[in-house]
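Hi X.,

You mentioned you wanted examples for the new student's onboarding notes, showing what a folding record looks like when two proteins sit in one file. Here is a clean example. The first protein comes first, with its sequence line followed by its C-alpha cells.
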Amino acid sequence: MESVLVTGGAGFIGSNITEALLLRGYRIVVLDDLSTGRMENILELQTSDNLKFVHGSIMDSGLLRSTIKSENITLISHQAAVPSVAKSIKDPIRTIDINITGTTNLFHIASEYGCKRIVFASSSSVYGDTPELPKRENMPVNPKSPYAVSKASKELLARVFSSLYDLKIVGLRYFNVYGRRQNPSSDYAAVIPKFITKALRNEPLPIEGDGLQTRDFTYIDDVVNANIQALVMDDIPSKVFNIAYGERISVLNLAELIREITGSTSEIVYKATRQGDVRDSLADVDFARKHLAYSPKFKIKEGLEETVVWYRKHADKRYAA
C-alpha cells in the first residue's frame, strides 16, 4: 500500500482529495497547520486506520523530513498555501514565505528521500488580466497580486526541481473551485459559498464591481479527479495543466442562478471592485484531456445544485457567512 502525503489536507480541496484517496485504498498522512484548514473537514475520515494527521507546517524542515522518512511517503499532494489574493496584498511577506519558501522546502526534502511524484496546486491567477480567451498553458503569465506571483514561482520551481532530480512534479492551475467543505467565512472564500449561505438566509448577495466579470467555475469532484489522475497515471509529463470546466458565467448571472436554485428572496447589492481581481477567466482544458484523461463532468448548474444540498445540511452547524 503506497503512502501519500497531503499537505493542507484539512482544507477545502485537500480534505476532498484525502477522502478520495482513502476510498481508493491509499494510506494517507495529512500535514496541516490548521491556519485555514479545519479538523471538522477530516473528522469523519479519521475513523480510518489508513489516515494519520500531523499538525505542522511545510516551513518545518525537521518535521517534513521525519514525516516523509518515517511514513515511507512516495507520493505527495501539495495543497498547503496561503490561499488568498486579498491576504497576499495585505501581508505579501507571509504569502511569499509559505507559498514559495515552503514549497521549495517540500520539493527539496522530497527529492532527498526519493519520492516519486508531487502534484501541486497552482492557480488561474497566474494568467492575470490578459484579454485573450480561453487561457492556454503556453500563454505568458502576468500575475496581478503577490498570491499570483507565488503560484507562478511554484511552477518555475517545479520545472527546475523536476529537471535536476529524479522527481516528477505536476502542477494544476485551478479555476475557481467550489463545492462541499468550502468555508464561506474564510478570507479565501470564493463567491459561490458566500452567495449560497446568504441566499439560504435570504440575505443580500454582495457583488464586487459591476457583476459582468466572468469566471470558469470548477466543481470539487472534477478537481479531485484531476489530482488523482495526476498522482497515479503512468507517463504524465512534468507540466502544468488547466483544471476547469471550460465554460464561463458572469458573477451577476451566477447570483441569479443561485437565487433560483435556493428559492431565495435575496437582493443583489453592489460593492467596490476588489483589488487584484481579474476581469474575465476561461480555460482551455484540452492539454489536461490529452495527458491526464481529464473529463470534467459538472456544468455550473449541476455543481451548484450538489453544493446547495451540502450547505442546506451542514451550513448552520459548521459555518456562519
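Then the second protein repeats the pattern, sequence line and then C-alpha cells:
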Amino acid sequence: MRFDRLDLNLLVALDALLSERSVSLAAERICLSQSATSSALGRLRDYFGDDLLVQKGRQMVLTARAEGLVEPVRAVLEQIRSTIAVSPPFDPATSDRTIRIMASDYMAEVLLASAFTDLQDKAPNMRFEIQSLNEALLETLERGFVDLLITIDYAISADHPSQILFEDDYVVVGWNGNPAMAGPMTKELYFELGHVTARFGRARVSAFEDWFMRRQKRQRRIEIIAPSFMSLSGFVIGSNRIATMHRRLAMRATDYLPLTIREMPLEIPPIREAVQWHISSNNDPAIRWMVEHLTTCASQPAATPPLVEKGVVSLDEKRRDVSREELSAQFQSHASGQVRGG
C-alpha cells in the first residue's frame, strides 16, 4: 500500500533502521534478510532524498533528516498498533502464541517451573522460551528480543511497565559434613570460610549479594566463581566452603541435597523480583494475561519459613540508613545496571 508515493510497509523497516542504526540488526529485528533490509534502505533514501544512515568509522550514524524522523515514525506506528491493528480476543485455551521470557535459573526454579505446570491445561498450545540473563537486560527488552524480563527491581527501567512478584532474602548454605555448619553462623566464621558466588556471562557480572558484599570494608574470600545460582550447591557439597543463597532456592535445594542452612550473620537488603514488559506491549492481552498468571503464582505462600531468628550484625554501621531508592541508584550506576540479582 502506498501513501503519497511512500510504500507504508517501509515504515516498519525505517523504524528498525533508525532504532538499531545497523542494517544487520534491523534485519534481525523485523525478521527480513540483510539484503532485503538493505534494499528497503535504498528505497527510503530515494523517497526522502537523504542518506538517512551514513558510515562513520566502524559504525553507522543518523543524518540530521533521520534524527528528525525518529519520534514521528515511532508515533505513527504506535498509533497504528493501538487503533487500527486491533488484535482478536486472546484465549489462552486456543492460542498458539510463543512468549519469550528472560530470567535467571533461580527464577526458573522457584517460580517459572510451577507456573508453567498450571499452563499445560490452561494454555495447551502456547509455547514459552526461557532465555538466560545477559549483560544487556534492558537493551534486549528494548529491541524486542524478549517479551518479558524478570529480574530484581533494582535493575528494571522506569521507562517500561513492571510488576513486583515477590520478596526474598539471603541465607548461608553449606554441606552437611562441614564442621562450620554444626552451629550458628557468626560474622567471624562467615569471613573465615571460603565462599562460592555466582557471576554471569562473558563479562562475569555479579549477583546482587556479591555486588553488595564487595562494597563493604571487609571482603570475603571467594574461592569459586560459579556460572549460575543453581550450581552453587554442587560447589559447597563435600567441602568446607559456604555460599550466600536466596532463601527460596536454598529451601528447595535442601529437599534433595545434603545441605544445611544457617541465617545470615550480617545484614544484606532483601531483593524484590519484578517482571517487566515493553511499553508497546502494554495493551497486548497475551502479555497482560501472562503477567497476571505469574503474579498470581508468585503470591502463593512459599514453603520457605524463616529459620530461628538470631541477632543479625549490621555489616557497615554507616550504611544502615541507606534507603532502598539510594541503593537502587547505586546499583544501577554500577556497570550500567548489569549486575544480576536473580
